[in-house]
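pinging the channel bc i need a second pair of eyes. not urgent but kinda urgent?? the chain im working w is below, pasted from the shared doc
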Amino acid sequence: MHTSAVRTYDNSIPEPNAVPNFEHYKSANPENTRSLSYFMVGSLGIISASMAKASITNFLSSMSASADVLALAKVEVGLASIPEGKNVIIKWRGKPVFVRHRTEDEIEEARNVDIKSLRDPETDDARVKKPEWLVMLGVCTHLGCVPIGESGDYGGWFCPCHGSHYDICECPSTKCDMFLTSTFQPVGFVRDLHL
């Protein structure tokens, strides 16, 4: 057959580019199909919203702290077992926390210190919540080491990594190159003798 020949179509064969006729599939009552369409759209919206909520909830919960981290977040210490004038070191979030039961003389000494002579000028009342209890992170700012308690020239703490001496007020002395991390602020007294 020649390519320029005119092709004739039989009426029973539809034209290839013609739009198909869907009249046979149309519903006799369009109200029924409208209700079904609304139901399907509403159901799909509810399912999509619940899936989006579940996805966002799972994503946000994956960023929260794990159970072992939450377990280390709070530590309770019975203060009644700490004798006056002694230190206790507890571990909180992997860091040492010094708890010192100060004597009346130590409290008076801390209150009478000339603030201008300190490297970290802060009053004793600003450092503690209860005057008889000094609570602070026991990490040296020089190399992150832990100072030795009840030692040094002033009977407070001595840091062996660079030879700094701290008094019982946690005030860096003139023999000090660095100072301890400031008094531990997130402390709270649960009961009278519980930290």
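so The longest strand covers residues 95-101. and Residues 69 and 103 are 35 Å apart (CA to CA). — does that match what u expected or am i reading it wrong
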